[in-house]
């Protein structure tokens, strides 16, 4: 009332005005001070946790003390399947994502809105929102670039905020033990240092947007076949030196505020009630301070899970709703444990900034997303083969360029399952569907054909779908160059039955290679595939699932506007028989290529609780297996060519745990970036007969330029995990340090002793 009167003052003379303005100030000040003091007096003592100056731990603790038992329980479970299952109730405040936790308004504790966001934000179409599709995480890992990973996470975090979410579910860090795993495209490859570094930096990027970040699926969810029941067997040393090491590095770099435990069992116990992996390793040894949430319906008990370290059930409350209340009341779960669970959730809310900086909705910036996604794609594409330097292609060429296969005329492929992002305008191969449909491959409207046409305006571009081998061969025969696009669609819930490209695409490449002058194969795959035709084609590019900027990124590489610099984050075997498990364990004719089907209709056609004994492979994941078993891969871990050449020289290394220095020179005609890699072979006492990646650097070099590179190996990577003392130990003895362009292309080496 008083304010309204004062906002409409009578006209005053300038002199008066001056006087009046200072009078106003003086007049308002006591009122304001009184108001502020009242607010302060009301809020400060009652809600001290709302003071942003206090550390997150303290704020969480203070908030917890103000909570009732019901409120604590409310924070440790979701509210049901919500939008994921047709007909299920949707809680008020639910933002349309995969999960929802109700906040406590009286205490200013916000709702938690969780969105699947492994490679971009899922389920945007349902709300008419836009989400950037990034390259697959495996593609990101092929950049070997921690800055690209941070950028990747920032895109996800930025768009989550814009869409009104405050928690990301993503950050897949399971190692690629099984190259046919349907979710490899959500993970970062076979090496713990590379995977942990990329995922850790991705999480940093997500959390830089006041979003709770997540690491998943903890742990050993290394295949989809039988994933809800499968019992993974592995000894402790191998656990710590492989998948758990990847998670450890991701946690140390990214400080994720949440970790999702996986569906499978580990040495008998379900991952979400496994006190060794959750309590002893994640919380104690890694110092993880956030909360552990279960994968969707991955909670199997109340007391056992709570005591083992699970902090939140998702998506519902079957075990952590009423049954947890009863367990606390009857003493089987101590109240202090429930406090710890709720306090961890509170800590993550305060530490992320989700309380002080709630998301503000706005239209996602698709242009920025596209630019970032394309940049990452361009660093991620791996030039696997380039006979007689057929690439880059000449922009001035006349004649026919044949483009064959994989819908290259309309778009690029994306991965399925809960990592699926909705394509703008709908699936580029069937726009009528609207939002992505579980189980159906989705193409994004970034057509390689269109961008190739822009690069080569004088050429005659012709397209063949690849469905008819004869038609493809006829076109290829009259073309000057044939670019064959091949794909492997992968999704959560099923593994590939073999390393072979599906749908007789090997036959397609053969048919083209038989008649074409120059065959270039562009792969869009979820992970490694076999290529029986590799000796018969000139060039091969692995583009993973390249994301919304994929079409242009591919054209930029094909025509040399971007010099390829990606390196393989996983070994490409020649054939399934060379893998530790020639068949995906548990995948039979009966289960078919569909081990389970978790969401579409709730059915689960799974093999009975099978066991996979990873001790056979143990610490020898990926390239370590190939080296120990003396098997020659098709393309080795770390492999990737450039349009220029690099030479390595002057390796120096006093002690394995100190800096390794060497020189790299660009001896070619083009500027380029080289991912220089350092490997160490431990002393014989380690029992290991293979090299380990211990460091790398992405080095940009102009033609003729030389740079000195310094890489300090991470001591944990030089150590072995000693089970007896439950600690990491450096083995005394002689270490062989090797430096080079790939795990099978080592240019320099030196022996260095550790006393
Ligand atoms: C997947 C998780 C996902 C969750 C929610 C599960 O089936 O394994 O990765 O976050 O569903 O959609």
Q: How big a fraction of the residues is strand?
A: 15-25%
Strand order, main sheet: write it out: 10-17-16-15-11-14
Using the alpha-carbon principal axes, give the shape: globular
Class derived from helix and strand content: alpha/beta
Model regions low in confidence, pLDDT < 50 over at least 5 residues:
1-23, 593-604
Please report the total strand number as a whole number: 27
Polypeptide structure, described:
- With 755 residues, the protein is α/β, with parallel strands linked by helices.
- The protein is built from 20 helices and 27 strands.
- The chain has a 6-stranded mixed β-sheet, with helices on both faces. It has a 4-stranded mixed β-sheet with strand order 8-7-5-18, with no helix packed on it. It has a 4-stranded antiparallel β-sheet with strand order 22-21-26-27.
- A hairpin with a 2-residue loop joins strand 7 (265-266) and strand 8 (269-270).
- Helix 3 packs across helix 13 (335-352) and helix 7 runs parallel beside helix 9 (243-254).
- The radius of gyration is 28 Å and the shape is globular.
- The chain starts with a helix and ends with a strand.
- Mean pLDDT is 93; it is low at 1-23 and 593-604.
- It binds beta-D-glucopyranose.
- Beta-D-glucopyranose binds at residues 98, 116, 169, 216, 295-296, 418, 492, 598.
Helix and strand arrangement:
Elements: H1 2-7, H2 14-46, H3 56-65, H4 69-74, E1 99-101, E2 112-116, H5 137-141, H6 146-162, E3 167-169, H7 192-207, E4 214-218, E5 231-233, H8 236-241, H9 243-254, E6 258-261, E7 265-266, E8 269-270, H10 275-285, E9 291-294, H11 303-308, H12 322-329, H13 335-352, H14 366-380, E10 382-386, E11 400-404, E12 412-413, E13 443-444, H15 448-455, E14 460-464, H16 469-478, E15 481-488, H17 505-515, E16 519-525, E17 539-542, H18 550-558, E18 611-613, H19 623-628, E19 646-652, E20 660-666, E21 672-681, E22 691-701, E23 706-711, H20 715-718, E24 719-722, E25 727-730, E26 733-742, E27 745-754
Parallel strand pairs: 2-3, 4-6, 5-7, 5-18, 6-9, 11-14, 11-15, 15-16, 16-17
Antiparallel strand pairs: 1-2, 7-8, 10-17, 12-13, 19-20, 20-23, 21-22, 21-26, 24-25, 26-27
Helix pairs in contact: 3-13, 6-7, 6-14, 7-9, 14-18, 15-18, 16-17
Bound molecules: beta-D-glucopyranose.
């Amino acid at each position: 009332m008083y304010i309204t009167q004062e906002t409409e003052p009578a006209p005053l003379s300038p002199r008066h005005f001056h006087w009046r303005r200072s009078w106003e100030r003086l007049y308002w000040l006591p009122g304001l001070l009184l108001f502020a003091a009242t607010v302060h007096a009301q809020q400060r003592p009652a809600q001290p946790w709302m003071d942003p100056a206090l550390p997150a731990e303290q704020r969480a603790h203070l908030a917890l003390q103000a909570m009732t038992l019901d409120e604590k329980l409310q924070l440790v479970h979701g509210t049901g399947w919500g939008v994921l299952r047709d007909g299920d109730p949707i809680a008020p405040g639910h933002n349309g994502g995969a999960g929802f936790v109700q906040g406590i308004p009286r205490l200013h504790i916000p709702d938690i809105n969780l969105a699947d966001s492994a490679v971009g934000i899922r389920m945007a179409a349902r709300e008419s929102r836009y989400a950037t599709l990034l390259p697959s995480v495996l593609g990101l890992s092929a950049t070997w670039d921690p800055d690209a990973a941070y950028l990747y996470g920032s895109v996800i975090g930025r768009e989550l905020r814009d869409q009104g979410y405050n928690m990301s579910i993503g950050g897949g860090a399971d190692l690629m033990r099984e190259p046919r795993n349907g979710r490899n495209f959500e993970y970062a490859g076979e090496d713990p240092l590379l995977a942990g570094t990329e995922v850790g930096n991705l999480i940093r990027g997500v959390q830089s947007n006041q979003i709770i970040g997540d690491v998943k699926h903890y742990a050993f969810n290394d295949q989809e076949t039988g994933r809800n029941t499968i019992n993974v067997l592995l000894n402790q040393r191998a656990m710590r030196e492989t998948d758990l090491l990847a998670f450890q590095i991701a946690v140390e770099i990214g400080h994720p505020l949440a970790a999702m435990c996986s569906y499978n069992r580990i040495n008998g116990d379900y991952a979400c009630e496994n006190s060794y992996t959750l309590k002893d390793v994640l919380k104690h040894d890694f110092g993880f301070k956030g909360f552990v949430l279960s994968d969707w319906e991955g909670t199997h008990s109340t007391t056992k899970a709570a005591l083992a370290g699970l902090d939140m059930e998702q998506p519902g409350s079957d075990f952590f709703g009423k049954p947890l209340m009863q367990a606390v009341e009857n003493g089987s779960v101590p109240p202090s444990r429930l406090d710890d669970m709720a306090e961890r959730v509170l800590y993550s809310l305060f530490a992320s900034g989700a309380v002080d900086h709630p998301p503000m909705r706005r239209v996602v910036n698709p242009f920025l997303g596209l630019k970032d996604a394309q940049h990452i794609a361009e660093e991620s594409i791996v030039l696997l083969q380039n006979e007689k330097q057929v690439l880059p292609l000449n922009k001035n060429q006349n004649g026919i360029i044949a483009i064959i296969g994989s819908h290259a005329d309309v778009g690029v492929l994306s991965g399925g399952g809960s990592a699926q992002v909705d394509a703008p305008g709908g699936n580029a191969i069937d726009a009528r569907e609207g939002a992505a449909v579980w189980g159906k491959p989705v193409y994004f409207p970034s057509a390689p054909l269109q961008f190739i046409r822009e690069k080569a305006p004088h050429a005659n571009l012709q397209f063949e779908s690849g469905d008819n081998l004869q038609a493809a061969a006829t076109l290829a025969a009259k073309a000057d160059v044939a670019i064959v696009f091949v794909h492997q669609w992968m999704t959560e819930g099923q593994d590939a039955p073999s390393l072979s490209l599906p749908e007789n695409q090997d036959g397609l490449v053969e048919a083209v290679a038989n008649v074409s002058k120059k065959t270039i194969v562009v792969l869009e795959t979820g992970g490694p595939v076999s290529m029986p035709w590799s000796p018969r084609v000139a060039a091969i590019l692995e583009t993973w699932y390249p994301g919304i900027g994929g079409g242009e990124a591919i054209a930029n590489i094909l025509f040399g506007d971007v010099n390829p610099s990606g390196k393989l984050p996983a070994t490409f075997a020649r054939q399934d028989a060379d893998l530790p498990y020639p068949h995906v364990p548990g995948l039979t004719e009966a289960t078919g290529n569909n081990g389970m089907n978790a969401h579409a209709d709730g059915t689960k056609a799974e093999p009975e609780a099978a066991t996979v004994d990873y001790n056979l492979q143990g610490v020898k994941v990926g390239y370590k297996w190939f080296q120990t078993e003396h098997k020659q891969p098709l393309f080795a871990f770390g492999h990737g060519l450039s349009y220029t050449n690099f030479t390595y020289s002057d390796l120096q290394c006093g002690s394995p745990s100190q800096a390794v220095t060497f020189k790299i020179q660009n001896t070619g005609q083009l500027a380029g970036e080289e991912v220089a890699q350092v490997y160490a072979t431990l002393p014989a006492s380690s029992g290991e007969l293979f090299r380990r990646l211990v460091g790398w650097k992405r080095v940009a070099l102009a033609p003729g330029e030389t740079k000195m590179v310094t890489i300090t190996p991470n001591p944990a990577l030089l150590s072995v995990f000693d089970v007896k003392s439950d600690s990491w130990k450096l083995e005394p003895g002689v270490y062989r340090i090797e430096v080079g362009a790939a795990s099978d292309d080592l240019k320099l080496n030196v022996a260095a002793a550790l006393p």
